[in-house]
Each structure stands twice: as C-alpha cells, then as structure tokens.
Write a structure and sequence with these properties.
Blueprint (H helix, E strand, L loop, with lengths): L21 H24 L3 H4 L21 E4 L8 H5 L7 E4 L7 E2 H6 L5 H8 L13 H7 L5 E2 L2 E4 L2 E4 L1 E4 L2 E4 L4 E3 L5 E3 H7 L3 H75 L10 H4 L12 H45 L6 H24 L3 E7 L11 E2 L9 H4 L4 E8 L3 H4 L1 H35 L12 H40 L6 H35 L3 H14 L1 H34 L17 H39 L12 H7 L10
Antiparallel strand pairs: 1-2, 3-4, 5-6, 7-8, 9-10, 11-12, 11-13
Helix pairs in contact: 1-11, 1-14, 1-15, 8-10, 8-18, 8-19, 10-18, 10-19, 10-20, 11-14, 14-15, 14-16, 14-19, 15-16, 16-17, 18-19
C-alpha cells in the first residue's frame, strides 16, 4: 500500500478532535429512547404476579385483592394424579380443575364417603366443601354428575403448600413411602391406590424440598461467613495487584522457567518412550504392529507393542524440535513481548486508577442486565388469560380449543361433550401488541447486547487512551498528563460515542445471529435430519469465529480511536494493516500475554483457595477459634475461589488492554520514527536495547 503520511508534531493522543460517526451516535440515542419506551409499555401491560402467584381455572390469581380469592393464596388440584410431574404444575398446564384455597387439606377423604354421611356428619361435609367449586352446596346431586362436572374433587389427600401449590405430604417410615402414615388410599372412584402413584404424580417434589432445605443451609453458611469471604476476596485483590506490579521484574523469569520446564518434561517423555521401547525388546508379541492387532477397546494392549512407544517417541521428538526451532528463530520477538509486558506493568504502576476502572464497566453491565431482565419478565407476563376446553372424555373433538368462559355454556360443546369446561390455560393474546411480543423480546435482547458491547467498548477506549498517553510521554513519568484516565473517558464519551456504538452494533448483530442459531439448534434437537444439524453446526462455528475476529478488530480499532480520534472504519482499517505488517510479533505477544495472565489467575485463585481451605477446615491453629461453624465448608470455599478468579480477571483485563495498547503504539513508533534526534523513539530504553542501537527502517519487522 501507499506510505502513510505522519504528522511530525505528533505527541500522544490528539486533543483537538472532532466528533466521529455522528449518524451512528444519533441512531444509538434514538434506540436507547425507544428501549426506554419499550420498557414503559411492557411495564404498563405486564404483571409479574402472573409468574409469582398461581392462577386458578377461572383466570384469577390466588391471593388477588378485591376478589373472592383475597385470602386464598394456595392452589389446589382436584385430581393430582392427572399431573405427571411438577414441571406440568409450575407451567399451570395440568388437565384438572384448579382452585384457590386458604389452606391445604390435612386428611384423607373421598366425595362418595362424605356425601353418604353428610346428614349425621355435617362437619365432614362442611370441611370437604371448602375444596369444591365456590358456592357448591348440593349433596343430593348424584356422585357421577358431580365428578363429571368437576364440582368437587373425588378425593382429598393430606397435603402441604409448596411453591404456593398443595402437594401430597410425603414422608418415609422404615424406608416405605407414606402419606400421613398410610401407604394406600381410596381414589374416590371405587379403587384403592398405592401412595407411590401420588409420588409419581408429584415426581421430584421431594428432591425440590430437599434442595430447599439445602438452600436454607447454604444461606445460613453465607450469613455466618460473609465477612471471611470478603477478606478472602480482599486478599485476592492484593495478590492480583502484587502480581501485576512484580511482572516488571518477573515476566521474563516466569516465561523462561515455564518454557524450559516444558522442554524438560518433553525430554523426559522422549527418554521414557525410548526406555519402554528398549525394555520390550525380545518379549514375545511386542514386535506385532498396530495394524496386526486391529482396533482394541482396552488401550493397555497397545502399550505392550514396541511400535506404539516408537510412534510416541517420534511425535515427542517432533514437538521438541519445533519448540526449540521456534525459540531460536523467534527469540527476539519473545524478548520484545516480555519487554512490553514489563512496560505494561510499569505503566499500570504510574496510572494505578486504571485498575479500578473495571468496576465502572461492571456497574454499567449490571444496569443493562437488570433492565433487560425486568423488561423481559414484564413482556412475558403481558398476555391476557387464554382459556381452553378441558374435556374428561378423550374423544371430544373440542378438547384443547380456545374458548370464552362467559359464552361457553351457551355453545353446543357442553351438549356434545358432557362435563367439558372452559378453564384457564396460559397467558397470551390476539391483539396487535400481543402478536408482536416475540418481536419485542428479540428487540429487547438485541438492544441489551448492543448496550453491553458499548459498555465494554467504552472501557477499552478509555483505558487505551490512558495507556497511550503514558507511551507517548517522551520523559516518563514527567510528561504524563494529569488525570490521564479521566480525560480519556471524557474524550471517548464526548467525541466517539458514535464510533464505539458502531463497533458495538456490528458485534451485537453477530451475537444475536448466534443466539438465534442456538435457539434453532435447541428446537431441532428432536429431529434427526442430519443435514440440517450439520448445516447449523457449520453456521454456529462460522459465526463463533467471526465474533472472535470482530472482537479482536474492534479492540484494536478502539485503541486507534483513542490515539488519533478518527472514525471507526478508518481506525479499524489502519489497526488491521498495522497488525498485519507485524503479524509474527502479534502472534508471539498474544500467546506470551495469554499464558502469563492465565498463570497469574491460577496462582491467585489457587493461592487464596488453598488458604481458604486450610482456614475453613480449621487447619490454621492461630485462627482455629475464629472459624464459624458451617453446614458445608465448600460453600464459602467455592465462593472465595470463583470470586478470586473473577477479581484477578478484572485486574488482568486492564493489564491485557495495557499491553495491547503499548504494542500498537510500539508498532506506530517504529514506523513513524527512526531513533534520530529529529525523530526520536518514544519507547523505553529496554525495548530500544532489544531492537539494537542502529537506525531501523520502518519496514523492519
């Protein structure tokens, strides 16, 4: 390409800038306003109580104020045996009448027995009647008609409320499942059933109840040990800071120790393979080839062949030779990478405020997630009640068709299907708004992705601006401007909102396509059309690669925006070609940085984890008295380990951004300047030494 024209007076991030990608900025602001409007509309139409409270067969919430259900907060199922699993119950899709009650039944009773004895045992009738439809008080109606019209349940079972629904009160006695100490019960239709039938109907509820008690214990553990967890995370923060500050002294040592360790381990592997190969000499059957014995499920068979060990040895020798050759040919680039890592550590030492910037990004993303989740819930619950025909007869042709409860009794459905009812099924709707709820949910997800990517982009651009002002300071630290992070943040927001939104938009589109592909893949799991599955798999793979590539391009484009203040496309193009001209350096630096930071995360999380393990298991005598009594010591332990990893990740993401910024500045420095007095290098003395004292032409890689 044509040689780039450089401004000879360039001295770090440009201050007299113009706004970039203004159209995208305007669109972004309009979309945010639209997103707020969508949230308001969803808030007006939606009602999260539809998720929190169960709904009875008449489409009313249990516990809904100003209705008959005001004091009836629990849902009761007429025939729980029709419900196969709790998933059916929680989705409110159980083919039996559902009624709101104030408390669950506490005894076994059948409608047949209660009706037969209602004259001389009126108290039993009055107790049973509260589980019948409101207003039903006609014990003279024939049992067959009562059960057909589902005026009353055929039986009641001792139950307890769970998730605001009545479930059989299971307990185990001597290993046998019982309900109220009984193993059998009458189903009210002339049969005696085993309690295990109920267990299958409410399958998994005991597990959920157990999970609930475990949840309570975990909550107690957190309540007792929260300040020790915070101390653990504070130690992780200190360790992360220490690791970053010490990298300027230890980056090279750590890397070379690891590299020579790998070379040593592979060398030992080669020696071991040779020893096994030599050891098997003369043993009968060891000279057979892999081809002779064919495919064996027991892997140990192959380890008795000399050919296997020979193959291992050749592979390991190949790997060893490749590593040694790479070290020989890339030694200078590895030294540059390590020098940049040390420089990054020094830069962070001068601008410590950057380490706490991830908190801003975290808060912005937390706001986005909260707003998205609330809007999604309100959108999902903004449907009107939809009623469907529920028929006791399996052959009724109207079963599962939508109906209107107010006009249902005047239709001929009840004549054709005696006992059929129009009961609440789920929330939906046919109006224009309800028809487009799926589109609104997609829009909600898309804007959410856009905003999250924007928050990340803003963070990257801000940090890049701060670190670039460090690199382009001729005398460090004297020439570093005051408040570099704050002024960089101001520049990014004031001039480059449009450019950052443009980069975030491209990523959000690709991520939305990936979400849709995942959804389609999930939907097509059942179909065995292998071609469709293969095509989806290929598409998912392609878009995953595209997203990774775009993230890399965007990151470097934001660095160029932070330095030169040009628009997104120009910055992305310049960054891409600059990196392509230094492609080997990019690869080496990337891998060396990734490795050292991964090592740092493992050291921090592992170190704090080991410390926490010894503390919570009372292995540290000094603190043995201080340790809280826990139900499960792994609860705070896992929290500390995962928390430490995330804390380290937050700090190290700043460091990775710092190294990337310094690297781009370094490449720019090489192309702009030649080390003469007229065009001096801005790089540190250590980098200058590695490159040699001689003048460098811009093309030198």
């Amino acid at each position: 390409g044509e040689p780039r024209k450089f401004d000879p007076k360039f001295r770090g991030p440009i201050h007299n800038r113009r706004c970039t990608d203004v159209i995208c900025c305007v669109i972004f602001i309009v979309v945010i306003l639209g997103y707020i409007a969508l949230g308001v509309v969803a808030w007006v139409h939606g009602d999260p109580r539809k998720v929190i409270y169960p709904t009875d067969s008449y489409g009313q919430f249990c516990g809904q104020k100003n209705t008959l259900n005001k004091n009836k907060t629990i849902l009761f199922y007429f025939n729980i045996l029709k419900c196969a699993s709790p998933v059916v119950l929680i989705n409110l899709q159980c083919p039996t009448t559902q009624l709101c009650v104030s408390k669950c039944p506490d005894r076994f009773a059948t409608y047949i027995d209660v009706q037969a004895s209602y004259r001389y045992r009126p108290d039993q009738w009055n107790y049973f009647r509260q589980f019948c439809k409101p207003g039903f008080n006609n014990p003279r109606k024939s049992v067959a008609q009562v059960l057909r019209d589902e005026d009353c349940p055929s039986m009641i079972i001792p139950s307890r409320p769970f998730l605001k629904r009545c479930f059989p009160d299971f307990s185990t006695k001597n290993g046998v499942l019982t309900v109220a100490n009984q193993t059998t019960f009458k189903d009210g239709r002339g049969k005696t059933r085993n309690v295990t039938d109920l267990r299958e109907a409410a399958n998994g509820i005991n597990n959920v109840l157990d999970a609930r008690s475990v949840g309570m214990k975990i909550f107690e553990d957190y309540a007792i040990s929260w300040y020790w967890i915070l101390i653990g995370l504070f130690i992780a923060m200190m360790l992360s800071l220490l690791f970053l500050v010490l990298l300027r002294f230890t980056a090279g040592v750590l890397f070379w120790i690891f590299i020579f360790g790998v070379i040593g381990i592979i060398g030992y592997g080669i020696w071991h393979c040779y020893w096994e190969y030599d050891h098997l000499k003369g043993i009968p059957g060891s000279d057979l080839t892999v081809y002779d014995i064919g495919f064996q499920t027991d892997f140990k068979v192959y380890l008795q062949l000399r050919q296997t060990w020979l193959a291992f040895m050749i592979i390991l020798c190949g790997v060893e030779v490749i590593i040694i050759l790479m070290l020989i040919f890339l030694r200078n680039r590895i030294r540059i990478a390590i020098a940049l890592l040390k420089e990054g550590s020094r830069a962070i030492g001068y601008i410590m405020s950057t380490l706490f910037y991830p908190i801003v990004t975290f808060l912005l993303i937390a706001i986005c997630i909260s707003y998205w989740a609330v809007t999604a819930v309100f959108l999902a619950t903004s449907g009107e009640p939809v009623y469907k025909v529920m028929a006791n007869q399996t052959l009724c042709k109207y079963a599962n068709l939508t109906c209107d409860p107010e006009t249902f009794n005047t239709t001929n459905v009840t004549k054709l299907c005696p006992g059929a009812q129009c009961t609440f099924a789920f929330y939906g709707g046919e109006s224009l708004y309800h028809r487009y709820i799926f589109i609104f949910q997609l829009a909600n997800a898309f804007v959410f992705l856009w905003l999250v990517n924007f928050a990340i982009a803003l963070g990257q651009c801000t940090l890049a601006g701060a670190f670039a002002s460090y690199y382009w300071a001729y005398r460090k630290p004297a020439d570093i401007p005051l408040w570099p992070l704050f002024s960089s943040f101001g520049r990014a927001i004031r001039y480059h909102t449009g450019s950052l939104a443009f980069g975030a938009l491209i990523l959000a589109i690709v991520q939305l396509i990936r979400v849709i592909l995942e959804y389609l893949d999930h939907k097509l799991k059942g179909t065995q059309n292998s071609f469709t599955r293969f095509l989806l798999c290929c598409l998912k793979c392609c878009f995953w690669c595209l997203e990774k590539f775009l993230k890399f391009i965007n990151r470097n484009a934001y660095i160029m925006i932070a330095i030169y203040g040009k628009n997104f496309c120009t910055s992305a193009k310049e960054a891409f070609f600059l990196l392509m001209r230094n492609v080997v350096r990019v690869a080496v630096l990337d891998k060396v940085t990734d490795f050292l930071l991964f090592l740092g995360k493992i050291l921090v999380a592992g170190g704090v984890g080991v410390l926490a393990f010894f503390f919570f298991t009372q292995r540290i005598p000094v603190f043995a008295q201080e340790v809280p009594m826990l139900n499960y010591y792994w609860v705070p332990l896992l929290t500390v380990i995962i928390g430490s990893y995330l804390v380290a990740h937050g700090f190290f993401s700043v460091y990775a951004m710092c190294v990337d910024t310094l690297f781009l500045c370094f490449c720019e420095d090489l192309e702009r300047n030649d080390g003469s007095t007229a065009k001096p290098y801005f790089m540190s003395a250590s980098l200058h030494r590695i490159l040699g004292k001689k003048k460098l032409s811009p093309k030198k890689a």
